Amino acid sequence: MVHQTRRDVLKGGAAMAAFAPFFNACAPSTVANAAPDTTDFADGVRLAELISSGDLTSTAATELAISRAEAVNPQINAIAHKGFDEARARAASAPEGAMGGVPTFIKDLADWKGAPTKFGSRAFVGNTAADDGPLSTAWRDTLGVVSLGKSTTPEMGLISSTEPLVTGPTRNPWNTDHIPGGSSGGAAALTAARVVPFAHSSDGGGSIRIPAACCGLFGLKPSNRIAPIGRPNQEGNPVEISVDLAVSHTVRDSAAIFAATARSEEARIPVTGPDTKRLRIGYAPETVSTDAVLDPDVRKELDETAALCRELGHEVKDVSLPIDGDTFSDKFLLYWSAGAAQFAQDAGKFAGKPPSPEILEPWTLMLAQNFLARATEIEDTIAYLVGFQTAYDNMFDDLGVDVILTPTVSSPAPPIGTQNPAAESMEEVMANVLGFAAYTSPMNVAGAASMSVPLGNSPGGLPIGSMFSGKKGDDRMLLALAYELEEAKPWIDRIPPVVAS
After folding, report:
1. pLDDT for res 232
2. Which of 183, 202, 242, 329 is an active site residue?
3. Res 234: pLDDT
4. For this structure, is 107 an active site residue?
5. Helix 325-351, helix 362-373: angle, nearest 10
6. pLDDT at position 40
7. Where does residue 112 fall: left (phi above 0), alpha (psi -120 to 50 degrees), or beta otherwise?
8. Separation between Cα atoms, residue 44 and residue 257, nearest integer Å
């Protein structure tokens, strides 16, 4: 297939011709890398334009998306709750907004009024949201999306695979024997399989970028306090790690969602294409953690990404990140475990039972126990992580770079079961998680902007993401770079074997 630029890809033809291939309710394809007519691909921005112009109704888009979900979900198991009747009612009201009437899914960590919020846990079966959370308010009222229901997530989003006991494992459309990543695994699987053009995702340690890398999607982790968040407001906490946005097929979908829902005036200025400014990019392919071993296929793809950036005129230089990865990993894991311990308490209170394997997964209980055993260290841990925020920002000046290029994860998506939260050996699961997800969490602690860009696939056909990270507030700079990479090396024409079209 002749490669096209992003603008060529997104121009499309007549309105309905652009719409049809994206929301055609057919049985999922079983042909790997089937070549679609990419000139007719309709992302969320395009669908919103068609709905706004009257060339398409939200009801029609919703019905076809439901058909696609029903066709493909038996293979990927990515839906935690089907809210199809509610979606039909909302679509009939012709919602307005930046993505007015476009169907999507909300991750099962955020409250959507009237829908269950199970947090990927057996403990919260029967929990229904009485009101929208801040994230859902923005997506309902400002974006105007139609939620088809909830996408799957691991229990409380605490692991980088999506294999919760409450719903069973979610599978990667590129190879259903492999994970889609976590914790936004359901969102990524549904988007990659082209059920919806984008889906809500959240990121507390890599949970937007990791699934994006596993499923061949674009994923921006916004800077802290810019986008609305799906869980109770963290402001006032000394270390705020969780943020929300989306996984998407196109950069412009994520950029549009970011601008429409941003809480700062500057961030609300849309980024609509590349910038002429050339960047100083520090290339650091090797992780600073001894837990991770970089897969040769990932290294090869990252080398190609660095070469592409040089071809585009950016200055790329090899750097070593001045981070004690083992110390950082230990401190972050304890802070992460504190969240698990709080969740265990909340789960026991809701279920009316003590936290135990009856209601919680072994992974969650292991993390909670880790915190209880080391609770006296939490004050020093928080002080370390607060200090890391300054050290992270200083690192860019010390290295003389604007952006850092690393892998998103250390390998292509591993097989299902590798990160099983109920495995017999939690030690083996922990080792796999720490090695696989070694690159992403520093940006969460720093509150920094970071993105995974789907620039390649492994010889085995699994996607490989390249991660670009800046400082806090560098979101617009990263989006402009993403547009440029998307034009130079389009990914729209890469289709997984399991796809609802």
Report:
1. 63
2. 183
3. 60
4. yes
5. 110
6. 54
7. beta
8. 10
